């Protein structure tokens, strides 16, 4: 009897993969606890790891219940400086700078920030770029038609599909184009219908809806209103603003809703908040909060007129109002106001290096002047572009 060939008698063994040992859902739950830097290394381990980490399902899992970071942008004379800081778990009154990013030679006021991603236009306003502060990777998006300048650009996130989209207004007329990040798609025109408008700078994305301030006047001098853009359906709606909405304000998330908060603190420590209760009926709810009298004692050397040197910049996921100095300091800090307890706490931010300005002979002169442009307390890491 002839011996059986090895290829017939012995079943060829297949190497076990991670999916054979663990369900994909469990793998995602494990991966979501890892920092983005570690995920970047895992992509090189196997094609399966890469496909899991780059999937839209993992994007949704990763962004769920992530711990926020303090996300600073300071403006110098010629460029902008970006810091990300992590809050200490053992000491809630301290935060340390986790990363200092390259200076951006762009107008940081016109940048769009979401989940640690920064969207901005090139110096000649011909292209749109997206920088991931977690991976420190810069991606240039496809070019528009030649001679078409970028006027406005906003980042939006669809939490249901797990995708990021960039909405742009190009050209002198209000022509809007949109592109989905990461799927190789190109720009496509979005019809605004009856809502012809010219966007302004204030904007925020909440639960798959992009809100931004706009006006109907081409010269941007008319009455302002809020545009509501559904990132998933790519449709526009217009929301009227309350007549008492203040100009020096910021868009924030308050109890899951859009809110407009006054950046300026009154002399008696008061701050005004307008909450959008019903976008269809254009219903706004006005809330007035008064800071405790002891809040000025937390401020170093500015107790007499502290309200002039600080402004509200954000509301974190815990419902605390974030208050920060208007310029960077050698001993920088952030104040958190809890409206439910009517209490404040001070968090020292360690590791922010104040640039030094020198005279013509390179002798020490004084710390350079850096004004605070943005501070987000709920920014998280994003695995986009890994």
From TrEMBL:
Domain F-box: start-end pairs: 22-62
A Pfam family that the UniProt record links to this protein: FBA_3
InterPro entries in the cross-refs: F-box-assoc_dom_typ3, F-box-assoc_interact_dom, F-box-like_dom_sf, F-box_dom, Gal_Oxase/kelch_b-propeller
Top-level division of the source organism's lineage: Eukaryota
NCBIfam families tied to this protein: F_box_assoc_1
Protein name: F-box domain-containing protein
The organism of origin for this protein: Brassica campestris
